[in-house]
Specification:
The chain is an all-alpha fold. The chain has helices at 6-12, 27-30, 47-54, 66-80, 83-136; strands at 36-37, 57-58. Strands 1-2 form a two-stranded antiparallel sheet.
Length: 137
């Protein structure tokens, strides 16, 4: 995908609100990456557009070091985060997790108590059955 066809595809799927910004394989980054002749992509439907837009050289995203790409994407995402709001949401999430844990512990304790009571009732029924059998015999 490229900035040529990706915006249309995003729009087609209801993503009109999405801002698309190239962060990798920019002019600043391609200088140190291996390139190849655009003619090797002449059968690609985007060939003419690419050649007109970028010239005679191509670069593949795969040529970037994955660690560099990951760091680049992480920096870009971090720059978009509203830190105070993020931290507030993290605190709310921690509170919700503690609340869920407390409820689960309560339900598990309640379940153990119910199982213990059921076990006692079964033993009592067996004992009563034995007593009834002994009294009849």
């Amino acid at each position: 995908m490229s900035e040529h066809d990706l915006p249309e595809r995003i729009k087609e799927y209801g993503g009109d609100h999405i801002e698309l910004r190239r962060i990798a394989l920019t002019t600043d980054l391609t200088g140190s990456l291996p390139s190849f002749c655009v003619e090797t992509k002449s059968k690609d439907t985007r060939y003419r557009w690419f050649k007109k837009t970028y010239g005679d050289r191509c670069w593949e995203l795969d040529a970037m070091d994955p660690n560099d790409l990951r760091a680049l994407v992480e920096r870009e995402i971090e720059a978009l985060i509203d830190r105070p709001l993020w931290e507030q949401q993290e605190r709310l999430q921690e509170r919700d997790i503690r609340s869920i844990d407390l409820h689960m512990n309560f339900l598990q304790q309640e379940d153990r108590e119910r199982q213990a009571t059921e076990s006692h009732l079964r033993h009592l029924a067996i004992f009563q059955n034995l007593n009834t059998t002994d009294a009849a015999g």
